[in-house]
Every structure is written in C-alpha cells, then in structure tokens.
Amino acid sequence: MVTSGEPAGVGPDLCLAVAQKPWPAKLLFLGDPLLFRERAAETGSSVSIEVTDELIAHQAGVLRVSPVTLGAPVEAGRLDTANAAYVMRMLDIACDGCLSGRFQAMVTAPVQKSIISDSGLAFTGHTEYLAQRTHSALPVMLLVAGKLRVALATTHLPLSQVPQALSIPQLVNLLSVLDEGLRSRFALARPRIVVCGLNPHAGEGGHLGREEIDIIEPAIKQARAQDLVIRGPVPADTAFTPRALTDADAVLAMYHDQGLPVLKHAGFGSAINVTLGLPIIRTSVDHGTALDLAGTGRADAGSLIAALQLAVDCAST
C-alpha cells in the first residue's frame, strides 16, 4: 500500500511515476482519484487511473487507487489545512491494513508536518504517529543510502531538548531494536553498529560535556553485555569517514541533524527512510513535499522507487 502524502506536494506526481514501472507485487495507491487525474494531466503522465480496492498484480502504466476523498480542491504547490484530515486518513487506512494482514507493507510519500499541526491535529512525524497507532514503545528511524545506514537516537526534537531525551535504558533498548531490525530487514547475521557521541570530540573526556561518560558509554556497555557488536562513542566528525565505515553496518547518531546531512549528501534523491521497531513494514522517501516541483513533471521519483523496492524485498523475506 502506497500513501500519496500531502496532496499539494509531489507525492501524487511520484506515485504516477512509480506506477509507470513494472513491479513484482500487488500495488494499491491511496488518494483521491480526481487528484491523480488532475496531476497526470498537469505533468503529462500517460498512466491510466483505475479505481479499485482489490489487490491485483501490478501492471506497468496503471495506477490502481483505493479512493479517499479530499477535504478541499487542490492546487499544486498551495497548502490547505482542510486536507490535513485526508492525509491522516490515508495513514490510518494503510497502517490498519498492515496490522490486519491485508497489506504486507506500507510505503509513504512525504507529508507536510506543519500544515497538519496548523489544522489542530497532533502530529510530529510519520515515525512517532505510526508508533502510537501500532502501540510500539520505541520506534527507530533508520535512513539508508546504498550501504550507508544511519539511525537516530532522537528524531523531531529541538536541539535544546536532545540531552534530556537521552538515557541509558532508552539507548540500550534502541540499540537492541536497531540490531534486530538490521537482522530481520537487511539479513545481517551479526550487525556492527557505530555509536556517535553527542558532544564535539565525543565530550573530550568530560571537558566538552558529560553525556558520553554518564549515559552513552554505560548504555554501550550494557548493550555489549547482550552480545551486540558496538563501537563508540565515536566523535561524529570522524564517524562517517570511509575508513571508519569499513567495519560498520549502521551508525547511530544522537540527533536528527548530526547524521542526516551526511546521509543526504551521500544519496539525496535515492535514500530511504525505514521505521524499525514496528510490527509492520514501513518505508518512505527521504525528502519533503517539494511544493515548488508539484505539478511540473520535474520531480525525481528515485527515493520513492527505492522505498518501494525495499518494502517489496522486506515483504518477500
């Protein structure tokens, strides 16, 4: 199941591009059929729109859409809070379908977090929302670009709140979820995880902060006692060098902008967001709604294609 995301953004465009290709899977796209038809006309897409709730083997050039009605008409590039509930409805349908076993995986196009919040709905991101809906205690956001995998100890938090969000039990549990996810989703028999420090130079022995001494090092020690293979805490400015990554299957960054700039530099446009720690398979694009590209036909579908491919691979294992 593929959710088409923010209707004013590039999500519908990307879904049309994905549907143009052959896929060894039964694909359904969630969204308003009228929106897909309008966006196909705007972008010059020749994809045929078929309204159905049946799971049928995908046919290249046909977008099979399970209909969800928009809250208000859409103009590409212009946000409208009236469509926030429409976006959330798609997430609920896809998530619940995965929980029931009807769908094997969900793939999400980008949403606009700000417009959902402005509508009065509580929403900080896909990761947190899906964890709440699936009653998952500790979701882990993992970004993938080729062989580079970066997980986040904290996700969508102001930087000032990151130190308080870190604790020994939280990091131990997170490392366990990350290890299990690397085994189950990526078929790694014994994952090797590099853990970044929070502070410059990983705290410089306490001179630049004590989070490494008081929280990160004890957490690593406990995780190693559970037979996890972990190296760290490593200064973040050297954790991503080619030499440092030769014996690493994943890097755990302490906060969003510690790890993701490196990953997006390495693979922007083809990277994937994977949520570990859920009872369902969920993958997503690594970028936002790109409102300026919506309806132009110039949006790059590489990340959604990669996310769908990973979902298909995970569902097949």
What does this structure look like?
- With 317 residues, the chain is α/β, with parallel strands linked by helices.
- It folds into two domains: 1-136 and 278-317, Isopropylmalate Dehydrogenase (3-Layer(aba) Sandwich); 138-274, Isopropylmalate Dehydrogenase (3-Layer(aba) Sandwich), CATH 3.40.718.
- It is 39% helix and 17% strand.
- The protein contains twelve helices and twelve strands.
- The chain has helices spanning 11-19, 33-43, 84-100, 113-118, 126-133, 162-165, 168-186, 211-225, 236-239, 242-245, 256-267, 302-316, and strands spanning 2-3, 29-31, 48-51, 62-67, 106-108, 140-145, 148-152, 192-196, 229-234, 250-253, 272-276, 282-285.
- A twelve-stranded mixed β-sheet has the order 3-4-2-1-5-12-11-6-7-10-8-9, with helices on both faces.
- Strand 8 (192-196), helix 8 (211-225) and strand 9 (229-234) form a beta-alpha-beta unit.
- Helix 7 (168-186) crosses helix 8.
- The longest helix has 19 residues, at 168-186.
- The radius of gyration is 20 Å and the shape is elongated.
**What's the total count of β strands?**
12
Give average pLDDT, whole number.
Answer: 95
The major pleated sheet works out as: 12 strands, mixed
User: Would you give the CATH topology of the largest domain?
Assistant: Isopropylmalate Dehydrogenase
CATH homologous superfamily label of the largest domain: Isopropylmalate Dehydrogenase
CATH architecture of the largest domain: 3-Layer(aba) Sandwich
Distance between the termini: 17 Å
Order of helices and strands: EHEHEEHEHHEEHHEHEHHEHEEH
Note the overall shape: elongated
Number of domains: 2
Strand order of the largest sheet: 3-4-2-1-5-12-11-6-7-10-8-9
| Rg, Å, rounded | 20 Å
CATH class of the largest domain: Alpha Beta
List unreliable stretches of 5+ residues: none
User: How much beta, percentage-wise?
Assistant: 15-25%
